[in-house]
Fold:
Amino acid sequence: MVAADLSGKTAVITGASNGLGRACAFALAGAGAELVLICRNRELAQNTVADIKRATGNQQVDYLLADLSSQAEVRAVAAEFLASGRPLHILLNNAGALFPRRTLSADGIEKTFALNHLGYFLLTALLLERIKDSAPARIVNVASRAHEGARQGMCFDDLQGERDYSSFGAYGQSKLANILFTRELARRLRGTGVTVNALHPGFVATRFAHANALYSLLMTLLRPLQRSIDQGSRTLTYLCASPEVEGVSGEYFADCRSITPSRHALDDVAARRLWDISAAMVGVAP
Structure:
């Protein structure tokens, strides 16, 4: 349960029909928040909404459908939310995946980068004015300790893995991008009443990469070391709702405490460069 009363607050959660996003949605709904869940699968979305309403008694739970690797669908779902006139106090960017082979999105962009980073970037950019108008507000970006695997930093000369692709390498790059995005956004949001933080949820037993046979085998072998989804979702919920992090911004958390990410994640020059490249790729002002 969240140590806060979220009555009157509206939260948008991406990737909310399973795993960490679903667990966090239950916690925020239980604290009284109005929820809008952004999901890719209609049946899973409907089931999740029904389960949350039944378990928490909170009837202010709705869903929108979008594949967040598609810029057109991100724009459509953002427009649909904005048209509802709702305020936005909490945005949890959680949707992500690890792909076994190099795959292109509907926009012709390598899909790991398109979903895990540009999906966060574009959705946040489109909703940002509403978030500012709703301040105090929070943006939470689910990153990962996998960012430490990007040992050379962001590969700006091969962001889409055209020359050298591996599923784990692309995933690590996207998670590094999440932290760099968080830090640069925090810099830009100073004085607005909007905070933004990133987090590592831990080694969690989710199905986000179940299509990758090697990863699935590895997860099966390491299952005794994994934390539950409820345990993994605690830091998400903490950053979305806890009074303890009111006003804290630009930080990277694990186990509900601020920790130091890799040195590449602290590179402010790389963060600004990534911002400008990302803005050009999704067609928004830098």
